[in-house]
Amino acid sequence: MKSAPASNASLVRPELGTDEQLVDLVLGGDVDSFAVLMRRHNQRLYRVVRGFVGDASTAEDILQQTYVLAYRGLAQFERRAKFSTWLTRIAVREALRTRRRAARVEEVHERANLVRVIELTRSPEDHAAIKEWTRALERAIDELPEEYRTVLVLRRVEQMDTDETAALLGLSPENVRVRLHRARALLKEVLFQRVGDSLDEVYEFGGKRCDGIVARVLAELSL
């Protein structure tokens, strides 16, 4: 990328700047600012992608590809939407493309889901710590039909509003509400009540995994 003229953006501490200020710094040749952007959005994008593909390894591959595409297309970011929304759209597009390439056909396991959730919540290990409840919930979410799982992750786990979820998935707001209701019915609200505040730990993506994504993207881009 070509160096940009000095501007107010160059005076911004990357870790404190807005996404848009960091984009300006990256376009000006500041690679470290792109690393800051990746770390800032890793958790959200991983959760969104994992909600689509239901597999941790595949989700990380898609996340890496998302950042590569975003970096290479950063000059096309027109700022009509938030940077986070622009980035999430790339991730969703890549997730859908991966599913089509793999031609995976997902089966609906509504009854099996309920049986498995009940078995997990009654096991001695699940009663040992709240962490086990979170993992039980995570596994149950993975087995939901895609149309319910993606809405559930965006709305309940990632806390996006109905309109933003509808825009990302190409649905009407009413359709989003219906799918969320059905997803909650499948999981049984009692499971959410038992897990409580630990929902923010679902699809945890930090530490070495976060560092690994940043390192692999920078290596692929030869930065």
Account of the 3D structure:
The chain has 12 helices and no strands. Helix content is 70%, strand content 0%. 28% of the residues are buried. The chain folds into 2 domains: 8-104 and 207-220, Rna Polymerase Sigma Factor, Chain: A; 110-201, Orthogonal Bundle (Arc Repressor Mutant, subunit A). The protein has helices at residues 19-27, 31-53, 56-72, 83-102, 110-122, 124-128, 130-142, 146-157, 162-169, 173-187, 189-195, 207-220.
H-E string: HHHHHHHHHHHH
Helix content: 55-70%
Query: Count of helical segments?
Result: 12
Look at the helices and sheets and give the structural class.
mainly alpha
What name goes with the CATH superfamily of the largest domain? RNA polymerase sigma factor, region 2, helix turn helix motif
Looking at the structure, the CATH topology of the largest domain is Rna Polymerase Sigma Factor, Chain: A
Reported CATH architecture of the largest domain = Orthogonal Bundle
Q: How widely separated are the two ends?
A: 11 Å
Q: Which consecutive residue ranges, at least 5 long each, have pLDDT under 50? A: 1-12, 104-110
| Most strands sheet | none
Q: Please indicate the count of domains.
A: 2
| Overall spatial form | globular
State mean pLDDT (0 to 100 scale).
78
The total count of strands amounts to 0
Top-tier CATH class of the largest domain: Mainly Alpha
Rg computed from alpha carbons, rounded to a whole number of angstroms? 19 Å
